[in-house]
Design brief:
Distance between the termini: 38 Å
Number of helices: 11
Strand order of the largest sheet: 13-12-11-10-6-9-8-7-14
Number of strands: 14
Shape: globular
Helix content: 25-40%
Length: about 375
Protein backbone atom coordinates (compact mmCIF):
# COMPACT_ATOMS: atom_id res chain seq x y z
CA UNK A 1 0.00 0.00 0.00
CA UNK A 2 1.41 3.39 -0.97
CA UNK A 3 1.73 6.17 1.58
CA UNK A 4 0.95 9.86 1.22
CA UNK A 5 2.82 12.69 2.87
CA UNK A 6 6.49 13.10 3.54
CA UNK A 7 8.57 10.24 4.89
CA UNK A 8 10.01 11.11 8.30
CA UNK A 9 13.66 10.41 9.12
CA UNK A 10 16.15 10.77 11.93
CA UNK A 11 19.85 11.55 11.66
CA UNK A 12 22.70 10.12 13.73
CA UNK A 13 25.77 12.34 13.50
CA UNK A 14 25.83 15.60 11.57
CA UNK A 15 26.28 17.91 14.56
CA UNK A 16 28.39 21.05 14.83
CA UNK A 17 31.48 20.87 12.61
CA UNK A 18 30.35 17.74 10.74
CA UNK A 19 30.70 17.55 6.96
CA UNK A 20 28.68 14.63 5.64
CA UNK A 21 25.66 14.73 7.98
CA UNK A 22 24.25 18.02 6.67
CA UNK A 23 24.90 16.79 3.11
CA UNK A 24 22.76 13.72 3.81
CA UNK A 25 19.99 15.91 5.19
CA UNK A 26 20.01 18.15 2.10
CA UNK A 27 20.02 15.18 -0.26
CA UNK A 28 17.23 13.36 1.56
CA UNK A 29 14.99 16.45 1.48
CA UNK A 30 15.90 17.70 -1.99
CA UNK A 31 12.89 16.26 -3.82
CA UNK A 32 10.38 17.25 -1.16
CA UNK A 33 9.42 13.69 -0.23
CA UNK A 34 11.09 13.48 3.19
CA UNK A 35 11.72 15.60 6.27
CA UNK A 36 14.10 15.46 9.21
CA UNK A 37 12.10 15.07 12.43
CA UNK A 38 14.68 13.99 15.02
CA UNK A 39 18.30 13.19 15.61
CA UNK A 40 21.19 12.20 17.85
CA UNK A 41 23.69 14.66 16.46
CA UNK A 42 26.65 14.28 18.80
CA UNK A 43 28.07 12.07 21.55
CA UNK A 44 28.09 15.22 23.70
CA UNK A 45 24.50 15.68 24.96
CA UNK A 46 24.69 19.49 25.06
CA UNK A 47 26.20 19.69 21.59
CA UNK A 48 23.55 17.27 20.35
CA UNK A 49 20.76 19.44 21.76
CA UNK A 50 22.32 22.65 20.45
CA UNK A 51 22.89 21.17 16.98
CA UNK A 52 19.31 19.97 16.75
CA UNK A 53 17.68 23.14 17.99
CA UNK A 54 19.93 25.77 16.41
CA UNK A 55 21.31 24.03 13.30
CA UNK A 56 18.30 21.92 12.30
CA UNK A 57 15.49 23.91 13.99
CA UNK A 58 14.01 20.85 15.68
CA UNK A 59 12.06 20.83 18.95
CA UNK A 60 14.25 20.01 21.94
CA UNK A 61 12.38 16.80 22.73
CA UNK A 62 13.37 15.38 19.32
CA UNK A 63 17.09 16.11 19.89
CA UNK A 64 18.32 13.02 21.70
CA UNK A 65 21.46 12.55 23.78
CA UNK A 66 22.27 9.18 22.15
CA UNK A 67 21.16 6.98 19.29
CA UNK A 68 19.81 4.46 21.81
CA UNK A 69 17.61 7.16 23.34
CA UNK A 70 16.44 8.20 19.89
CA UNK A 71 15.43 4.67 18.88
CA UNK A 72 13.59 4.13 22.16
CA UNK A 73 11.95 7.55 22.13
CA UNK A 74 10.77 7.26 18.54
CA UNK A 75 9.32 3.80 19.10
CA UNK A 76 7.11 5.27 21.82
CA UNK A 77 5.63 7.92 19.51
CA UNK A 78 2.42 7.32 17.54
CA UNK A 79 3.01 5.58 14.22
CA UNK A 80 2.04 8.68 12.25
CA UNK A 81 4.58 10.83 14.12
CA UNK A 82 7.67 8.66 14.65
CA UNK A 83 10.60 8.55 12.26
CA UNK A 84 10.40 5.93 9.51
CA UNK A 85 14.08 5.57 8.72
CA UNK A 86 17.38 6.61 10.22
CA UNK A 87 20.48 8.00 8.49
CA UNK A 88 23.82 6.92 9.99
CA UNK A 89 26.45 9.56 9.17
CA UNK A 90 29.19 8.83 11.69
CA UNK A 91 32.77 7.50 11.69
CA UNK A 92 33.04 3.91 10.45
CA UNK A 93 33.38 2.15 13.81
CA UNK A 94 29.90 3.28 14.84
CA UNK A 95 28.08 2.04 11.74
CA UNK A 96 27.62 -1.55 12.88
CA UNK A 97 26.20 -1.06 16.39
CA UNK A 98 23.94 1.76 15.23
CA UNK A 99 22.63 -0.09 12.17
CA UNK A 100 22.17 -3.26 14.20
CA UNK A 101 20.16 -1.43 16.86
CA UNK A 102 18.04 0.41 14.28
CA UNK A 103 17.20 -2.80 12.41
CA UNK A 104 16.39 -4.60 15.66
CA UNK A 105 14.00 -1.73 16.47
CA UNK A 106 12.26 -2.15 13.12
CA UNK A 107 13.52 1.02 11.44
CA UNK A 108 14.75 1.21 7.85
CA UNK A 109 18.35 2.38 7.53
CA UNK A 110 20.51 4.51 5.28
CA UNK A 111 24.17 4.02 6.24
CA UNK A 112 27.27 5.77 5.02
CA UNK A 113 30.07 3.66 3.55
CA UNK A 114 32.04 1.56 4.23
CA UNK A 115 29.27 -0.43 5.84
CA UNK A 116 31.23 -1.45 8.94
CA UNK A 117 34.63 -2.77 10.04
CA UNK A 118 34.57 -6.40 8.87
CA UNK A 119 32.92 -8.87 6.52
CA UNK A 120 31.51 -10.69 9.54
CA UNK A 121 29.74 -7.54 10.75
CA UNK A 122 28.44 -6.86 7.24
CA UNK A 123 27.00 -10.36 6.94
CA UNK A 124 25.36 -10.05 10.35
CA UNK A 125 23.62 -6.87 9.21
CA UNK A 126 22.50 -8.52 5.98
CA UNK A 127 21.06 -11.49 7.88
CA UNK A 128 19.26 -9.21 10.35
CA UNK A 129 17.83 -7.04 7.59
CA UNK A 130 16.50 -10.11 5.79
CA UNK A 131 14.72 -11.19 8.97
CA UNK A 132 13.30 -7.72 9.63
CA UNK A 133 12.21 -7.07 6.02
CA UNK A 134 12.98 -3.35 6.06
CA UNK A 135 14.90 -1.40 3.40
CA UNK A 136 18.61 -0.73 3.94
CA UNK A 137 20.70 1.54 1.69
CA UNK A 138 24.46 2.10 1.65
CA UNK A 139 25.35 5.51 0.28
CA UNK A 140 27.72 4.83 -2.57
CA UNK A 141 26.45 8.08 -4.00
CA UNK A 142 28.44 8.17 -7.24
CA UNK A 143 26.13 5.50 -8.65
CA UNK A 144 23.39 8.15 -8.60
CA UNK A 145 24.90 10.33 -11.32
CA UNK A 146 22.76 10.33 -14.51
CA UNK A 147 25.66 9.54 -16.82
CA UNK A 148 26.83 6.71 -14.57
CA UNK A 149 23.36 5.23 -15.04
CA UNK A 150 23.74 5.81 -18.78
CA UNK A 151 27.10 4.05 -18.78
CA UNK A 152 25.63 1.03 -17.01
CA UNK A 153 22.84 0.85 -19.58
CA UNK A 154 25.31 0.93 -22.50
CA UNK A 155 27.26 -1.95 -20.99
CA UNK A 156 24.10 -3.94 -20.24
CA UNK A 157 22.71 -3.71 -23.78
CA UNK A 158 26.04 -4.80 -25.28
CA UNK A 159 27.10 -1.57 -26.98
CA UNK A 160 30.73 -2.20 -25.96
CA UNK A 161 30.65 -5.96 -26.52
CA UNK A 162 32.39 -8.24 -24.05
CA UNK A 163 34.32 -6.20 -21.49
CA UNK A 164 38.09 -6.65 -21.63
CA UNK A 165 39.54 -3.97 -19.39
CA UNK A 166 38.34 -1.60 -16.65
CA UNK A 167 40.23 1.33 -15.12
CA UNK A 168 38.99 3.30 -12.16
CA UNK A 169 40.88 6.01 -10.32
CA UNK A 170 40.00 8.16 -7.33
CA UNK A 171 42.63 10.76 -6.44
CA UNK A 172 42.62 13.32 -3.63
CA UNK A 173 45.39 15.44 -2.16
CA UNK A 174 43.96 16.65 1.13
CA UNK A 175 45.94 14.17 3.26
CA UNK A 176 49.31 14.82 1.64
CA UNK A 177 50.51 16.18 4.99
CA UNK A 178 49.71 15.26 8.58
CA UNK A 179 46.70 17.19 9.90
CA UNK A 180 46.59 16.69 13.67
CA UNK A 181 43.98 19.42 14.18
CA UNK A 182 41.58 18.25 11.46
CA UNK A 183 38.77 16.15 12.94
CA UNK A 184 37.90 14.59 9.58
CA UNK A 185 41.52 13.58 9.04
CA UNK A 186 41.91 12.25 12.57
CA UNK A 187 39.23 9.61 12.47
CA UNK A 188 39.92 8.59 8.86
CA UNK A 189 43.56 7.79 9.67
CA UNK A 190 42.93 6.03 13.00
CA UNK A 191 42.48 2.22 12.82
CA UNK A 192 40.17 2.34 15.86
CA UNK A 193 37.62 4.52 14.06
CA UNK A 194 38.32 3.92 10.35
CA UNK A 195 39.00 0.19 10.38
CA UNK A 196 41.72 -1.79 8.66
CA UNK A 197 42.11 0.52 5.66
CA UNK A 198 42.52 4.28 5.36
CA UNK A 199 42.44 5.57 1.80
CA UNK A 200 40.99 2.33 0.46
CA UNK A 201 38.26 2.22 3.08
CA UNK A 202 37.37 5.86 2.47
CA UNK A 203 37.54 6.30 -1.30
CA UNK A 204 38.88 3.03 -2.74
CA UNK A 205 35.60 1.47 -1.67
CA UNK A 206 33.74 4.05 -3.76
CA UNK A 207 35.85 3.17 -6.80
CA UNK A 208 35.14 -0.55 -6.39
CA UNK A 209 31.40 0.04 -6.16
CA UNK A 210 31.42 2.37 -9.18
CA UNK A 211 33.19 -0.07 -11.49
CA UNK A 212 31.07 -2.99 -10.25
CA UNK A 213 27.86 -0.99 -10.66
CA UNK A 214 28.61 0.07 -14.22
CA UNK A 215 30.09 -3.17 -15.56
CA UNK A 216 28.17 -5.78 -13.59
CA UNK A 217 31.43 -7.74 -13.35
CA UNK A 218 32.48 -9.71 -10.28
CA UNK A 219 36.06 -9.48 -9.00
CA UNK A 220 37.52 -12.98 -8.62
CA UNK A 221 41.17 -12.19 -7.79
CA UNK A 222 43.20 -9.13 -6.89
CA UNK A 223 46.74 -8.02 -6.20
CA UNK A 224 47.16 -4.91 -4.05
CA UNK A 225 50.05 -2.61 -3.22
CA UNK A 226 49.10 -0.17 -0.45
CA UNK A 227 51.36 2.67 0.62
CA UNK A 228 51.65 4.98 3.61
CA UNK A 229 53.71 8.01 2.64
CA UNK A 230 53.02 10.41 5.51
CA UNK A 231 55.33 9.64 8.47
CA UNK A 232 53.70 8.09 11.55
CA UNK A 233 50.41 7.51 9.76
CA UNK A 234 48.89 4.18 10.80
CA UNK A 235 46.84 3.43 7.67
CA UNK A 236 47.33 3.52 3.90
CA UNK A 237 47.07 6.85 2.12
CA UNK A 238 47.71 5.55 -1.42
CA UNK A 239 47.57 2.34 -3.41
CA UNK A 240 47.03 0.41 -6.63
CA UNK A 241 45.11 -2.83 -7.15
CA UNK A 242 45.21 -5.14 -10.16
CA UNK A 243 41.91 -6.93 -10.72
CA UNK A 244 40.72 -10.08 -12.45
CA UNK A 245 37.01 -10.48 -13.17
CA UNK A 246 34.73 -13.43 -13.83
CA UNK A 247 34.67 -13.92 -17.59
CA UNK A 248 38.29 -12.94 -18.15
CA UNK A 249 38.28 -9.14 -18.01
CA UNK A 250 41.20 -7.39 -16.28
CA UNK A 251 41.36 -4.07 -14.47
CA UNK A 252 43.31 -1.57 -12.42
CA UNK A 253 41.97 0.47 -9.51
CA UNK A 254 44.01 3.35 -8.11
CA UNK A 255 43.21 5.44 -5.06
CA UNK A 256 45.25 8.11 -3.33
CA UNK A 257 44.80 10.86 -0.78
CA UNK A 258 48.32 12.24 -1.15
CA UNK A 259 47.98 13.29 -4.82
CA UNK A 260 48.78 16.99 -4.38
CA UNK A 261 46.52 19.19 -6.50
CA UNK A 262 43.74 16.62 -6.87
CA UNK A 263 40.40 17.40 -5.23
CA UNK A 264 37.92 14.58 -5.87
CA UNK A 265 39.27 13.28 -9.16
CA UNK A 266 37.12 10.20 -9.75
CA UNK A 267 37.21 8.63 -13.20
CA UNK A 268 36.12 5.40 -14.87
CA UNK A 269 36.99 3.86 -18.23
CA UNK A 270 35.53 0.61 -19.59
CA UNK A 271 36.97 -1.07 -22.68
CA UNK A 272 35.09 -3.76 -24.62
CA UNK A 273 35.70 -5.68 -27.81
CA UNK A 274 33.61 -3.22 -29.86
CA UNK A 275 33.81 0.04 -27.97
CA UNK A 276 34.65 1.93 -24.79
CA UNK A 277 33.29 4.61 -22.48
CA UNK A 278 34.85 7.21 -20.21
CA UNK A 279 33.35 9.22 -17.34
CA UNK A 280 34.88 11.73 -14.92
CA UNK A 281 33.22 13.35 -11.95
CA UNK A 282 34.87 16.68 -12.84
CA UNK A 283 32.69 16.67 -15.99
CA UNK A 284 29.86 14.61 -14.56
CA UNK A 285 27.23 15.60 -17.13
CA UNK A 286 29.24 14.07 -20.01
CA UNK A 287 29.86 10.46 -20.99
CA UNK A 288 32.35 9.77 -23.79
CA UNK A 289 31.52 6.76 -25.96
CA UNK A 290 33.86 5.30 -28.59
CA UNK A 291 32.73 2.57 -31.02
CA UNK A 292 34.88 0.84 -33.58
CA UNK A 293 35.05 2.78 -36.87
CA UNK A 294 32.69 5.44 -35.51
CA UNK A 295 33.37 9.05 -34.48
CA UNK A 296 33.49 9.93 -30.80
CA UNK A 297 30.06 10.49 -29.27
CA UNK A 298 29.42 12.62 -26.20
CA UNK A 299 26.27 11.76 -24.25
CA UNK A 300 24.97 14.60 -22.08
CA UNK A 301 22.73 14.54 -19.03
CA UNK A 302 19.30 15.81 -20.02
CA UNK A 303 19.99 15.09 -23.69
CA UNK A 304 18.80 12.27 -25.96
CA UNK A 305 20.40 8.85 -26.03
CA UNK A 306 19.82 7.19 -22.66
CA UNK A 307 16.57 6.28 -20.97
CA UNK A 308 18.52 5.30 -17.83
CA UNK A 309 19.72 8.89 -17.41
CA UNK A 310 16.25 10.43 -17.52
CA UNK A 311 14.98 9.71 -13.99
CA UNK A 312 18.12 10.96 -12.15
CA UNK A 313 18.19 14.21 -14.16
CA UNK A 314 16.33 17.09 -12.51
CA UNK A 315 17.34 20.08 -14.67
CA UNK A 316 17.21 20.91 -18.38
CA UNK A 317 20.27 20.02 -20.46
CA UNK A 318 23.22 22.31 -19.85
CA UNK A 319 22.47 22.97 -16.19
CA UNK A 320 25.12 21.23 -14.06
CA UNK A 321 24.02 18.65 -11.54
CA UNK A 322 26.44 17.27 -9.03
CA UNK A 323 27.32 15.47 -5.82
CA UNK A 324 24.23 16.32 -3.76
CA UNK A 325 21.88 15.54 -6.65
CA UNK A 326 23.53 12.15 -7.17
CA UNK A 327 23.09 11.32 -3.49
CA UNK A 328 19.53 12.63 -3.66
CA UNK A 329 18.78 10.13 -6.43
CA UNK A 330 19.63 7.27 -4.07
CA UNK A 331 17.39 8.82 -1.42
CA UNK A 332 14.62 9.33 -3.95
CA UNK A 333 14.68 5.64 -4.84
CA UNK A 334 14.90 4.55 -1.19
CA UNK A 335 12.02 6.82 -0.16
CA UNK A 336 9.90 5.60 -3.07
CA UNK A 337 10.29 2.07 -1.73
CA UNK A 338 9.17 3.21 1.73
CA UNK A 339 6.16 4.83 0.06
CA UNK A 340 5.20 1.47 -1.42
CA UNK A 341 6.08 2.38 -5.01
CA UNK A 342 8.28 -0.64 -5.67
CA UNK A 343 11.92 -1.59 -5.02
CA UNK A 344 14.47 1.16 -5.57
CA UNK A 345 17.65 0.93 -7.63
CA UNK A 346 19.97 1.99 -4.81
CA UNK A 347 23.06 0.24 -3.37
CA UNK A 348 22.05 -2.06 -0.56
CA UNK A 349 23.51 -4.55 1.87
CA UNK A 350 24.84 -6.85 -0.85
CA UNK A 351 26.91 -3.91 -2.08
CA UNK A 352 28.01 -3.23 1.48
CA UNK A 353 29.08 -6.84 2.05
CA UNK A 354 30.95 -6.94 -1.25
CA UNK A 355 32.65 -3.66 -0.37
CA UNK A 356 33.90 -5.08 2.92
CA UNK A 357 35.14 -8.22 1.14
CA UNK A 358 37.06 -5.98 -1.26
CA UNK A 359 38.64 -3.92 1.53
CA UNK A 360 39.69 -6.97 3.52
CA UNK A 361 41.20 -8.71 0.49
CA UNK A 362 43.09 -5.55 -0.54
CA UNK A 363 44.63 -5.30 2.93
CA UNK A 364 45.40 -9.03 2.96
CA UNK A 365 47.09 -8.95 -0.44
CA UNK A 366 49.21 -5.92 0.39
CA UNK A 367 50.20 -7.32 3.80
CA UNK A 368 51.40 -10.49 2.05
CA UNK A 369 53.70 -8.50 -0.20
CA UNK A 370 51.32 -7.76 -3.08
CA UNK A 371 50.37 -11.40 -3.64
CA UNK A 372 47.37 -12.39 -5.70
CA UNK A 373 44.42 -13.45 -3.49
CA UNK A 374 41.05 -14.94 -4.34
CA UNK A 375 37.90 -12.89 -3.72
CA UNK A 376 34.65 -14.60 -2.71
Amino acid sequence: MSQVGKIRFGLVGGGEGAFIGPIHRMAAELDGQAELVCGAFSADPERARRSGVEQYQLPADRCYASYQAMLAGEQERPADKRMQFVIIATPNHLHFPMAQAALASGFAVVCDKPLCLSVQQAEELRDLQQRQHVPFAVTYNYSGYPMVRAARQLVAVGTLGSIRRVQCSYLQGWLAQAQPDNKQAQWRTDPQTAGGAGCFGDIGSHAEQLLSFVTGLSITRLCADLNTFVPDRALDDDGTVMLQFAGGAKGVLTASQIAVGCENDLSLAVYGERGSLEWRQAEANSLLVHELDQPLRVHRAGGPGSTAAVAPTRLPAGHPEGYIEALATLYQEFISELQGLGPGDYPGLEDGVRGMQFIEKVVESSTRGAQWVDVA
